[in-house]
Amino acid sequence: MFGDIMGMMGKLKETQQKVEATKKRLDTVLVDEKSSDGLLEVTLTANRTIRSITIDDSLLTDKEQLEDYLVLVLNKAIEKATTINEAELGAVAKEGMPNIPGLDMFK
């Protein structure tokens, strides 16, 4: 019995290390998103950290328009980054789940 528990604990610790390594790797995965007319471009990491924002000079004359562009493009980029993040971390977590009867709903 204790061997099973120790084995599960070891597997959980290994999975936790893999999750941390995956999070670090996701800092290097970049997600680019542009407005439909190309006047605004943002780059985020898959961990949803903004790396860059490029704004065309024509948007600098209309504050409200620029704000709208930022909201739309950032939300699209965050959605893409979240999808990548959840898929990557979910795969690692699923792989590391111990085989516990009754908890196969996670597999």
TrEMBL record:
Domain of life, per lineage: Bacteria
Subcellular location, record wording: Cytoplasm, Nucleoid
Pfam families referenced in this protein's UniProt entry, alphabetically: YbaB_DNA_bd
Keywords: Cytoplasm, DNA-binding
Gene Ontology MF term list: DNA binding
Main location, first listed in the record: cytoplasm
Assigned GO CC terms: bacterial nucleoid; cytoplasm
Family designation: Belongs to the YbaB/EbfC family.
Role of this protein: Binds to DNA and alters its conformation. May be involved in regulation of gene expression, nucleoid organization and DNA protection.
Description of how the protein assembles with itself and partners: Homodimer.
Record's protein name: Nucleoid-associated protein EQG63_06160
Species name: Flavobacterium amnicola
